[in-house]
């Protein structure tokens, strides 16, 4: 939870022990979206699945790893160089080449995965 909302908000919740509603959870970044009912939840889930299915699986996994690897590090030359190298590898990978080709051909990419 601390990673999701940050130490300042987490400390406030830990100290007070207060409960909170969905709107508050969304405001502090604990959830991405709040919906009104089960039907809206189904619709939101379908949207997220559609978005996820249009993304390159390896690129998404790499982006997640990169996020965890850099989230608490200071921005310095080493971090920028490492990030640039990882992005370059992704762009020159089979997925990266397929994504660029699909973009240039104005078609949906055919991801493996």
Structure characterization notes:
The chain has 113 residues and is mostly helical. Helices cover 68% and strands 0% of the residues. It has helices spanning 2-5, 7-16, 22-27, 38-53, 57-70, 77-92, 94-104. α5 packs antiparallel against α6 (77-92). It is flat and about 50 Å long.
Span between N and C termini? 30 Å
Structural class: mainly alpha
Evaluate the radius of gyration.
19 Å
> What is the 3D form?
flat
Total beta strand runs: 0
Order of helices and strands: HHHHHHH
Number of helices: 7
Helix fraction bin: 55-70%
Summarize this structure briefly.
With 113 residues, this protein is mainly α. It has seven helices and no strands.
Which helices and strands occur, and which strands form pairs?
Elements: H1 2-5, H2 7-16, H3 22-27, H4 38-53, H5 57-70, H6 77-92, H7 94-104
List keywords for this structure.
0% strand; mainly alpha; 113 residues
């Amino acid at each position: 939870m601390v990673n999701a909302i940050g130490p300042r908000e987490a400390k406030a919740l830990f100290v007070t022990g207060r409960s909170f509603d969905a709107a508050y959870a969304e405001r502090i970044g604990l959830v991405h979206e709040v919906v009104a009912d089960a039907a809206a939840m189904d619709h939101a889930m379908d949207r997220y699945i559609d978005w996820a299915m249009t993304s390159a699986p390896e690129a998404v996994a790499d982006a997640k790893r990169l996020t965890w690897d850099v989230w608490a590090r200071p921005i310095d030359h080493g971090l920028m160089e490492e990030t640039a190298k990882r992005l370059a590898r992704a762009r020159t990978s089979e997925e990266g080449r397929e994504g660029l080709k699909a973009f240039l051909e104005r078609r949906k990419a055919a991801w493996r995965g």
